Amino acid sequence: MSDDLFSYSAAKPSHSSSDSDSVVKARIAELSKQLDHHNELYYQEAEPEISDAEYDRLINELKGLEKEHPELAQQDSPTQRVGGAPLEGFSQIQHLVPMLSIEDIHELKDEELSLLQQTRPTAKRSDNLTDWFQRFERSLGHSEVALSIEPKIDGVAVSIVYKNGYFDYAVTRGDGATGDDISQNIRTIKSIPLKLPEGAPALFEVRGEVFMANAAFIALNQKRQEAGDQLFVNPRNATAGTLKQLDSKLVEKRPLDCIFHSYGMVEDAPYQTIEQFQETLRAYGLKSSSWFQMPTTMAELQAAIEQLDNDRHDFPYATDGAVIKVNELELHSVLGSTSKHPKWACAYKFLPEQVETQIKNITIQVGRTGVLTPVAELEPVFVSGSTVSRATLHNQDEIDRKDVRIGDRVIIEKAGEIIPAVVKVVNTDAPNRGEKFNLYDFTHGSCPSCASPIEQEEGFVAWRCLNFACPAQAVTRIKHFASRKALDIDGLGTAVAEKLVETKMVSTTLDLFDLDIDTLPHLQLDPAQLELGESKPRRLGEKRAEQIINSLNSAKASPLSRWIYSMGIAQIGESAAREIARLHRDLIEVSESEILRDLAELPDYSELSVSKRKKENHPRLSKYQIESELGTVSAQHLVTFFTSEGGKAVLNKLSTLGINPTSDNYDPEKSAHSDSSSAIASKTFVITGTLSKPRPEFKKLIESLGGKVSGSISAKTDYLLAGEKAGSKKAKAQELGVTVLDEAALHAMM
Fold this sequence. Notes:
- By secondary structure, the chain is of the alpha+beta class.
- Helix content is 37%, strand content 19%.
- The chain has six domains: 79 residues, Helix hairpin bin (Helix Hairpins, Orthogonal Bundle); 203 residues, D-amino Acid Aminotransferase, Chain A, domain 1, CATH 3.30.470.30; 96 residues, CATH 2.40.50.140; 88 residues, DNA polymerase, domain 1 (Orthogonal Bundle); 116 residues, DNA polymerase, domain 1, CATH 1.10.150.20; 72 residues, BRCT domain (Rossmann fold, 3-Layer(aba) Sandwich), CATH 3.40.50.
- The longest helix is centred in the first third of the chain and has 29 residues.
């Protein structure tokens, strides 16, 4: 949605400018209040009141107003959470007070416990914790000390400083004294307030853990698996990798969250205990753990830890232990700290539960984008709170590394307490093990769903079925095609998609447009189950069928970006689809795009900042290709799709249907035509002298046509644009044989 759509500049009021500013200021305040309210409901209460589309409408209206009236934008505006320009690197910030780590107290392993029980028969797994507890009791000279216990979140530590109630900066732990400034990345996490309530301390440093919720992590890995990308090992690995990104626009797309648990420098702290600090966090809108207990004896502490170990399997995020602190803050200074950690706290780490089972078989799943994923079918076994019968083996490289074979006895655990994973093979020395597993040989080089040939793209570990009509991909492709962010086909959910494919009414997404109102209502869905166990046949019905047909007819006029996204091409998400649509008039132009072919042949710039891309100085690298979010890998997938048999079939089918989606955000200055056909493209210019317009305007014009503008003359310069009083640069250009242009010659080149 365009930022200008809700701009107030299109219709200027007849009253004074000050009155107009008051109206705009009031609207900005109202929008900010609404968005803050909806952010709190969505990210902290998990009870949204409005749809994503309505939220987008509000945020875009606010962005439009702030763009027109930057002087009215507030530092805690919801728009400040949008990712900014990529950084060159992270700057360093010194912590206001040292950010010490907490002493780890590990649960005793089986062999450690057995050895200890030889001399202490009553020893328990938590004896290390008992030693810690008795140590601080001796330091205080008395017992019955109130403690606090809360889950240890398996995330990445961060410290956030609020000054005068506003978010000032965020920094990593680093070496404890100095960390990386990750403010730009942390601002994108919508559960973190940018402003504290009235009455908050003038300086308030709060510390917590940035993490990914289990469900969000699984969804992220599924997307990466479908795209053939390397999977994250666990939520912490994914979180750490995300926070290291120099491009906060990428961070904004990752599902990060944060829970706070401690503090640094605070002026006039409104609390005297850990319990009161927890209450303060909640009052300030800062998320804290909902699981919190206060034992006072070793027996109560051990009971609380056992309960947490049981309860944590139901938490929405990964935990690997319990954080224990002395509740009274006055006692913290009495107990003191070592050079590495405070003596008034510890982190009791749970051992990951591992169990042994057998791999009965290995099966192959085919994902939405055709990626083939090997899955270990296990003898069912109970681990970390649930019965597990399957574990992903990810890809052939993972199988080779662990030498996993059918029939093996294996140790499994839930990676990050979430995803069942094979840790190692137990019977590696057994003489009668099965044959080494090779995915290509196992499938005979064919997709297990459609028998089409499978391919392994260069640079990727995944094998993929490229058949666009593959039945295994059909249901998931149709669901994606009909989803709200794609073509938004009302009434076409999972149950309908499955039955359409099962009954062979459709085999590809575009077959949906062949459905008609005469036959669709009679589609038989799964029977409804009655209270007495009986089943009742169900048909789709006229009303729902009409809803689907009407949505399909409306979808024909959907903009190019939605159509590109709906096709489910690997590496092409919503933002990439909009970027492609910005550069092309219609789908035919995308399929024939020279700019995409050029970009596909270049090195992968996706992890480099804009300035580093500029330094590469490839002769075919246009300004768009330098600054675009669309990377080389994405371009390669697009080119591969449109040159594949499946891609050609899509274009032919759309042509038959009379559909050629057009762009609603086309930018001629950045289009494939202007970038590739201009005589200025890829040429290096230097501008000097007095011209009819300021030099920056000529610079912008040249760059919009694919040229580059340098500040100094060299042998690599193609043209010097010279106005009056050109001076020494003109003389040097003539000396080096560089062509000198005046304004008329430049316009002629266009």
